[in-house]
Structure formats: structure tokens, C-alpha cells
Design goal:
heterodimer, A: 303 residues, alpha+beta, Uridine Diphospho-n-acetylenolpyruvylglucosamine Reductase, domain 3, Enolase-like, domain 1, 4-stranded antiparallel beta sheet, 14 strands, 24% strand, B: 164 residues, DNA polymerase, domain 1, 2 domains, 5-stranded mixed beta sheet, binds flavin-adenine dinucleotide, binds FE2/S2 (inorganic) cluster
């Protein structure tokens, strides 16, 4: 027989630990499985974060609930003033969607920063949110958009805000029998601007810090509503509320932008790691806040 | 300990295969050890290097991050399938001519990335090519010859399409 040598047994050819595999056809079946297996189970969507952890045996779930056949979760649609994104919407689908480009431009401009094309082809928007990495782009986008997280279980549905959903690094608020079914993101308002910038060591892969912003302006040109969310500013995606308070009701002039940047660097409570120390990250967040707000000045003037 | 096996039907490079596999069997290992298609290389096994990139239903994906069992009914193209037994694919020719490989370990992945990229962008500039190539890592070439090769492959494919 040709092929692999004898010593390379099946056991050495597999990386993840043994698990029971379930492939529900719709969200009801998925929720029933979650109700049955609870904390022993993990949801598998794009697998782009979960499978690396399983290959390294950092995670060894006893049960995998693969939602990739739940066609009822694959949608991206307009619902009133919001865009609803189902749990099976791939990042690459959102990246190339006209609906997202026109109604959720913040997500459109952030998406090319999320990993590489091969990871976006499979990784889902909701999977990235559920993974809750403080250095991931989409949680900061969802938080700057004031998104609503629709959580499903066999007990029913509930909705939470980004603040409630992101608990700490790699930890969301889901109970063991719950899954994220959908994220609802308000479409960009008339006279609003948005911007996203990050600082990274490479053009692909994870950033050192980032800022997503969505700012609305009144007819007087003053900032009527500001939402800024930072990546790398703490152990979870964090809104920069003191910075928002500083600029709301004001004209975005250069002095205010400098003050906002300085405030952001103070508010940020980053961790240091091999890629950047904490002081550098805080500086980076201050400078990114200035950058996104300068871009927004254009949005205020253009009107 | 091993788990219950599941049946997978997969079309790989145009050929139908049916196999019984453990759910934890990765596509990369399935291709290499079950189907003996060893052209797909394994580097990091956590999605970062791109050596294991194949086309899954026409889209690039990391075969080290997919369970074969989850791909029941899928169509896969590996480096063995891009030219079949015929002459080299224009992307392969361009890599050969531009000296875009040294050890060649990363090459199968780069070829899959290039094929997907040129399908959606047949006339890219060098900036777009560099952006697309972030999908893969090469530890030998320094990338410049790979960028040249992709540029040349695009030209060959555009000319080929006109000639056809
Ligand atoms: C090379 C590479 C580079 C990357 N670079 C970046 C990057 O720069 N920025 C970035 O943000 N990400 C990056 N990622 C990760 C990103 O690609 C993942 O897609 C994303 O983090 C997880 O989405 P997923 O659909 O793949 O989820 P999975 O990997 O399937 O799941 C991730 C976690 O969320 C849980 N989960 C998934 N879906 C649900 C659900 N609907 N309800 C409840 N729980 C759920 C899973 O159980 C698991 O714990 C990268 C990945 C790779 C391979
Ligand atoms: S082996 Fe799959 S990406 Fe490195
Ligand atoms: S040619 Fe050796 S890794 Fe690319």
C-alpha cells in the first residue's frame, strides 16, 4: 500500500481532541442541542478562531454544534432603520454587500482589516462578536454602532447591548444554553460621519490598537451624538464615553480634537504584550482618536 | 479513544470520494492522508501561514481550519487540480518564469490565492496584489518575485481570455 508510513497512525494525524459532532438544520435544532449539552458544547460557525484553539488543544469541547447548515441564519437584511445580520453571514458577504456599503459604511471600511480573505470567506460576523477578542475589529464596530445582540435559546429570545454582551477578554454574556442568533445595527443617520483606523505591525492579522467612530451632526454643524469605541484599550471592547461627552454639543475644531485625543489616552486602560507596551497603546489610541475625528470634520463641513 | 465516524462525500479536483472519517479529522489531513493528495502543505496548523490554502466551493479557505466531516457535499480544488494532467496553469507558468519560489513549501497556497484573486480582479495594480498576498506567508523569496509573477499571470490570463 502506498501512502503514509505505518508509524503515522490515525491518532497522530489528528490535532483536536475527540468530540461529538452535531449538525442542526435550523436554529430551533441548534438551541435544542445547546439546551441538552450546555457547557460541554461549543457552537462552530466559521471556525477561524475556534479551530486554531482546538488544534492547539487550548479548547477541547466534548460536543461541537456546527451551525453551518442552518440556512435560516444566513441573511443580511434591512429591518426598519436597522440592518439585521444573521449568525451565518460570512464576513466576506458583509464586505461585498451593497446594503452594508450604503447603510453600514463603518462595517464596510473596517472589514478589510479583519484577518485575510481566506479567513473572511468562512469567518462570520456573529462568530467574531461571540469570540469577544478585545483586539478584534467587529466588536468595536458593533459597539460604536449601538448594535443590539439578539440571543436565542430554547427558553426564548432576549436582546442586549454591546456593553452587556462583551464581559471581558474572550468572554461574552451568553448562558451555556444560549447562542447569538443575530446582530442588529442601526443604519447610518442622515448627516452622520463614520471612520475606522487601526495601528498594526502588519497589513494583516491582529492590530495593536484601533478606533471606530460614528458621529452625528446637527444642522448647526455641531456634533449632536458621538460614539467612539476602542480596540486594545482594555480587556474588552470599550466605548470611550468621556471622550464622547467632551465632543457632544461642540464644534469639532482642532483644539477640541486635540483635547479629545488627550482624554482618550487617559481613559484607555490597555494591557502591554509582546506587540506593544501599555503606554504605547494608550498613545496610539489618543492618536487614532485624533485621526478619526479629523476625518469626521470633513463630514461636518461637507453638508 | 475515538469517536463515531461520519460519512463524507466530497468532490475533489472533479473526482467524487466517499469516506468514513472521525469528525475531528481536518480537511488538510484528509486530503494528504486519506486521498494521498500531498500537494497541499501544512505549516502552522492554526490558520496563519496559508500553506494549506485550497479552494472550497470556489473560495480560498484554510484546510487546517476545516473539519472534513463538515464539508459533506463540498467541492474542493487543490494544487493537483488546477492544471490536471495538462500543461501548467498560466499562474503556475508565471511563478516558474519569475522564479517566485525557492523551497516551494508555500507555493501551493500562493497559487490558490492567486487564482481566486485574479478571478475577481483580472487587472490588478501592484498595491492590490500585495494586499491580496497577505493571505499567505513565504519565508524564502522576500515576496518581490511573487508580486512579479502575479502581475505576469494576470497579463497571461487576460491575453489567454482574448485569444480564446
Ligand atoms: C489568519 C487569521 C487572521 C485573523 N485575523 C483577525 C483579525 O485581524 N481581526 C479579527 O477580528 N479576527 C481575526 N481572525 C479571527 C476571525 O477570522 C474569526 O472569523 C472570528 O474571530 C470568529 O468567527 P468565526 O465565525 O470563525 O467563529 P468560530 O471560530 O466558529 O467561533 C469563535 C467562538 O465563538 C463561538 N461562536 C461562534 N458563533 C457563535 C454564535 N452564533 N453564538 C454563540 N457562540 C458562537 C464559538 O463557540 C467559539 O467559541 C483571524 C483568523 C485567522 C485564521
Ligand atoms: S497550515 Fe493552515 S494556515 Fe498554516
Ligand atoms: S519558497 Fe520557501 S517558503 Fe516560500
Amino acid at each position: 500500500m502506498t501512502g503514509s508510513p505505518q508509524w503515522l497512525s490515525m491518532e497522530t494525524r489528528v490535532k483536536p481532541a475527540v468530540f461529538d459532532y452535531h449538525r442542526p438544520d435550523n436554529i430551533e435544532e441548534a438551541c435544542a442541542l445547546l439546551a441538552e449539552y450546555g457547557a460541554d458544547a461549543r457552537v462552530l460557525s466559521g471556525g477561524q478562531s475556534l479551530v486554531p484553539l482546538m488544534n492547539m488543544r487550548i479548547l477541547s469541547p466534548a460536543v461541537l454544534i456546527d451551525i453551518n447548515r442552518c440556512r435560516d441564519l444566513a441573511y443580511l437584511r434591512e429591518e426598519g432603520a436597522a440592518i439585521a445580520c444573521g449568525a451565518l453571514t460570512r464576513q466576506s458577504e458583509a464586505e461585498t454587500s451593497d446594503l452594508v456599503a450604503s447603510r453600514l459604511p463603518l462595517m464596510s471600511i473596517a472589514m478589510p482589516h479583519v484577518g485575510v480573505r481566506a479567513s473572511r470567506n468562512f469567518g462570520t460576523v456573529c462568530g467574531s462578536l461571540a469570540h469577544a477578542d478585545p483586539l478584534a475589529e467587529l466588536p468595536s464596530v458593533a459597539s460604536a454602532l449601538d448594535a443590539r445582540f439578539v440571543i436565542a435559546s430554547s427558553r426564548g429570545r432576549r436582546e442586549v447591548t454591546a456593553d452587556e454582551f462583551f464581559v471581558s477578554a474572550l468572554t461574552n454574556c451568553l448562558e451555556p444554553d444560549e447562542m447569538l442568533a443575530e446582530v442588529k445595527m442601526p443604519a447610518i443617520a442622515e448627516g452622520a460621519g463614520c471612520a475606522f483606523h487601526e495601528i498594526a505591525n502588519r497589513a494583516h492579522g491582529f492590530a495593536v490598537a484601533g478606533v471606530a467612530a460614528c458621529v452625528e451632526f446637527g444642522p448647526d454643524g455641531r456634533c449632536s451624538r458621538a460614539r467612539l469605541s476602542a480596540m486594545g484599550a482594555g480587556d474588552t471592547t470599550a466605548r470611550l464615553s468621556p471622550v464622547e461627552a467632551l465632543i457632544e454639543g461642540q464644534r469639532l475644531d482642532d483644539a477640541l480634537i486635540r483635547a479629545a485625543g488627550a482624554e482618550a489616552a487617559v481613559v484607555a486602560d490597555p494591557a502591554g504584550d509582546v506587540h506593544a507596551d501599555a503606554a504605547y497603546r494608550a498613545e496610539a489610541i489618543g492618536s487614532l482618536v485624533r485621526k478619526v475625528l479629523r476625518q469626521m470634520q470633513g463630514a461636518a463641513v461637507e453638508r | 479513544m475515538s469517536a463515531k465516524k461520519v460519512t463524507v462525500r466530497m468532490k475533489v479536483n472533479g473526482k467524487e470520494y466517499v469516506r468514513e472519517v472521525e469528525p475531528r479529522y481536518l480537511l488538510a489531513d484528509f486530503l494528504r492522508h486519506e486521498l494521498q493528495l500531498t500537494g497541499t502543505h501544512i505549516g502552522c496548523e492554526h490558520g496563519v501561514c496559508g500553506a494549506c490554502t485550497v479552494l472550497i466551493n470556489g473560495k480560498t479557505g484554510r484546510s487546517c481550519l476545516q473539519f472534513a466531516a463538515a464539508l459533506d457535499g463540498a467541492e474542493i480544488t487543490t494544487v493537483e487540480g488546477i492544471a490536471g494532467d495538462g500543461p501548467l496553469h498560466p499562474v503556475q507558468e508565471a511563478f516558474h518564469d519569475a522564479h517566485a519560489l525557492q523551497c516551494g513549501y508555500c507555493t501551493p497556497g500562493f497559487l490558490m490565492t492567486t487564482i481566486e484573486f485574479l478571478q475577481s480582479n483580472p487587472n490588478p495594480d501592484r498595491g492590490q496584489i500585495r494586499q491580496a498576498l497577505t493571505n499567505n506567508m513565504c519565508r524564502c523569496t522576500g515576496y518581490l518575485n511573487i508580486v512579479d509573477a502575479v502581475e505576469d499571470a494576470a497579463k497571461r490570463m487576460r491575453e489567454g481570455a482574448c485569444g480564446a
